[in-house]
Fold each of these.
Amino acid sequence: MVPIPTIFLSKKPREKEVDSKSQVIEGISRLICSAKQQQTMLRVSIDGVEWSDIKFFQLAAQWPTHVKHFPVGLFSGSKTT
């Protein structure tokens, strides 16, 4: 069995990390996103459509040889009631 590399992308800015940064990672065929705590629900926006109360989601390229760039943005903010 081949180990699957795991990359953690944090929503919390670290000290001295005020500006947004760009990171390029090659060789990804599938991306799985979930919250650290199982009871935390996510809000996901895909092509302008917002989905609420999501536990996890995964993305996979249908034609991986044709996908050159796949931008992913992580946002955090307080939930208003």
Amino acid sequence: MRDVIIKHKQILEVVILVKRRIQAVISYCSYSLIVALLLLPLLPPQPVRAAASIEYELLGTHPQANAQATAVGKTLHKLQPFDNKIYVGYGDAAANTGPVELNPFDLDSEAFTGSELQIPSEEINKFRIIGGKLLTPMIDKRGCLVCANGYAEGPPFANRTPVSAVHIFDVNTLNGTDRWLVGSSDQSVDGAHVWRSENGVDNWEVVQAETNDFINGSEQYRWIEVLNGKIYMQAGDVVDESWQQAPVRIFDGENWTTGTNEIISLNNKTIVFDNKIISTTSGLSAFDGETFGEVTSFPGAAQDMYVDGEYLYVLRTNATLTRTNNLEDWQELGPTVNNASSVAVYDSRVYIGTTASTLHGSITALPTFTPDSQLVSGESTVAPLYQTRYGTGGYVNISASSIAVDSADNRYIVDRGDIVKLAPNGDYLDTLDSSNMEDFGEGASEIFIDTNDNLYIPYGYGVKKYNLSGDLLLEFGTEGSGDGEFGSTPSSAVADAEGNIYVGDSTNKNVQKFNSSGVFQLKWGTEGSGDGEFGSVGDLAVDSNNNIYVTDFINLRIQKFNSSGVFQLGWGSYGSGNSEFLSPTSMVVDSNDNVIVLDRDNGRAQKFASD
């Protein structure tokens, strides 16, 4: 199989090929990817396979985690290799299921060998290695509200409780000698606290505190990281009862300064890699000490992260693993194990923790690092989100959620509600928004342009049809479950060569057909998993014969119908193999009537013959 990698300017060039004859919508979830596999040879419902997977074996079940009373408590939240052992975080702070035992998996005896320390915390979910010792903060001290709190440290392992606090979420050092703790004191309007000991042992002082106008004890510093000789931290929930962040606070060893107000992380899942603070915010995000933004090359949503040498490993929420050496080039390492929740790498072996308290280890070697841009025959990938300057027009920072092309090959990209218009060479032409679009309301999330250059936008409980000058030509639909009614904003709207309009309704689990004037013609579908039934109605596409294709990310399949709604064909099931999906979110039919499906959580696109 021939793999096509399309980046930056090439991405939108490929969209032209897809939509020159059938102007189908490529719909996306937030911060998703543009399909870039249009020249792949066809497989008759057999897609291109992603990179080979690593195989795993069960190493054992953590006894104390498995004995927890809640599903959260049983989950292995964090893994930390140390001293030829794998230390494990578990517990449920919300349900107060502590205390917790520091019981690692010993790699010599290949067993959980017993508790090295009982920690008076409801949960463990963070580890640090500082000065040759392993530290873990007491994120929710057991048996009291405000009391002596701190961290566990060893070997030899002991509990250190040098400050009075409700929560200690993270611990770190700036110079190797000092110690920093961050959390919440719940004692005053300055609830979010940062403590420091210059010698790491005693004389702890509050060095930062954030004011909360509504004192509820949830104002907290959740993370603290060291980057380029400075230490960074940020408090949240400092305005009212919802998360409102304070600025990033920065200390360089002598002076304090204030940084961005962007939310770097809502939790303590932060890590330093490639001279940036990485967090699981918005899929995966990076902060270089001054600017913060999404790592747009990362496909999917992050569950856990681990740095081993030159590589950042990211476990996705769909239990697949990927790695990078520069935050730009990613290598797919395939599915891990069911219910994966945490990842670590030690001595070239991958370790996976699960929500079922089990620990797994890889039994096949890690492959040579081959990023997506160097994939070879038999492998596949998708292009990264187009989020940079395109051409010479000056439009910057596009975050595409839908794309369409008109008869003149101009591109229309939905960018946070507005529609950005680019020339065929990529130059910025215009922005379609409330200033030039009649009754534009809150804007667009999905768009479709038909062969007559009519623009369709799902909105509210219906669909609006415009010409490209922004004049509203037609709108139809209302709330409900009857003919011409929708249970929520339609998931997608497309038009065939005759001008008929097809609209997906994921709430009512059906597809409705209207004529070019918006008059209801027919509908089909009901909730279920049989032929013509839907668990969800996602993206719609239409081919040159007016057949309609519908993605269903609940039943994990694609269904094909003729223009009368009669079922023709269906394919797909759960998995990462050929004709299998984890989240078939978006779809397009190219000019040869091939169906290309974007599977976000598998991080790939698959190309199918339409018959």
